[in-house]
Write a structure and sequence with these properties.
Blueprint: H1 3-26, E1 42-45, H2 47-50, H3 60-70, E2 74-78, H4 79-84, H5 90-103, E3 107-111, H6 121-141, E4 145-148, H7 159-163, H8 167-188, E5 191-195, H9 204-214, E6 219-224, H10 232-240, E7 243-250, H11 264-273, E8 280-284, H12 290-304
Parallel strand pairs: 1-2, 1-8, 2-3, 3-4, 4-5, 5-6, 6-7, 7-8
Helix pairs in contact: 3-5, 6-8, 8-9, 9-10, 10-11, 11-12
């Protein structure tokens, strides 16, 4: 190809990409470009199968096999599950990645645990190093987003010391710790998603206080539909615009700890209005047998999350 022709074609491609990028950031959630995807991709968290007790799915590769056979689009890995099966060697990690490849299922997320709510700087430093190491694992597996938590309040063994601190002390600890994780996040290309969970992430206001203070594209929100027990839709809506991964709870057969009657048509509209087109990750947390409950959960989410 003539050099000038090649340059002309390259510029045309760049202009087309710019047009596409402009559409994705400026269009309304209701508009779908010609040929555009009309559903959110639906994946499954390995937690849905293992749940800390089901030895049949202790091996993550078996979870990936199940996800492929059940018709999911991808898989989210619970890191604790890998740790428990002592599969942290690089060769074992690459075996997981290869299994996802042969099934055509991307590994889109990893859920991790850490705790930054501690008055002890050494405890926070250790958890920063832990979190950075977890991001390195995501990089090896090609996983683009990782769930993080603030940690549980009450990490001090000394009750008198614990009672000397308040939430107002805790926010600077968490903000500082997560800021120290960001260089690794950027280096590895892993977007952290702060979950609306325990600790200082219990409320949407708490999550946003941390995320907004850090103000980085590498710290956004992992939004869990099952962690707001009261007025969930209003609270989910407050976090929708910053969501990079939606974890969708279902409770067929009654919940292990509690059940919520969640209207996924309503939740899907909240996410559509926020122009969210990313992953929906099933976290099945009911007592019904997974062989019947998970297919029903997938059908529920497929029907709800049509863009």
């Amino acid at each position: 190809m003539h050099r000038r022709t090649f340059q002309t074609n390259l510029l045309a491609a760049a202009a087309a990409a710019a047009t596409t990028a402009s559409w994705s950031t400026e269009s309304s959630a209701a508009a779908i470009p010609p040929g555009g995807r009309t559903t959110n991709p639906i994946g499954i968290s390995t937690y849905s199968l293992w749940r800390f007790k089901n030895d049949e799915f202790k091996d993550v590769t078996k979870c990936i096999d199940f996800a492929a056979d059940a018709g999911f689009d991808g898989v989210e890995i619970l890191l604790y599950q890998i740790s428990q099966t002592e599969m942290l060697s690089n060769s074992a990690l690459q075996a997981i990645k290869r299994r996802s490849l042969v099934h055509g299922l991307p590994l889109y997320g990893m859920s991790t645990h850490q705790g930054f709510v501690s008055p002890d700087p050494e405890v926070r430093r250790m958890n920063i190093e832990l979190t950075c190491g977890q991001m390195e694992l995501c990089y090896k597996l090609g996983i683009p987003t990782m769930r993080v938590n603030t940690g549980r309040w009450g990490t001090s063994k000394d009750f008198d010391t614990l009672m000397a601190y308040t939430e107002e002390d805790g926010y600077p600890w968490v903000i500082d710790a997560l800021e120290r994780c960001l260089p690794t996040a950027e280096k590895c290309g892993v977007t952290l998603g702060l979950e609306n969970h325990w600790g200082l992430g219990l409320t949407p206001e708490g999550v946003l206080r941390i995320v907004d203070a850090i103000n980085s594209p590498y710290l956004q929100v992992t939004l869990d539909t099952g962690n707001f027990l009261e007025d969930p839709y209003t609270k989910l809506q407050k976090l929708a615009a910053k969501t990079v991964l939606l974890q969708a709870k279902t409770y067929y057969g009654g919940g292990e700890w509690y059940s919520l009657e969640l209207d996924y048509e309503k939740i899907a509209k909240i996410l559509r209005d926020a122009n969210y087109r990313g992953w929906i990750s099933l976290e099945f947390e009911g007592k019904e047998n997974y062989k019947t409950a998970i297919p029903k959960s997938l059908e529920l989410l497929r029907n709800a999350f049509k863009l």
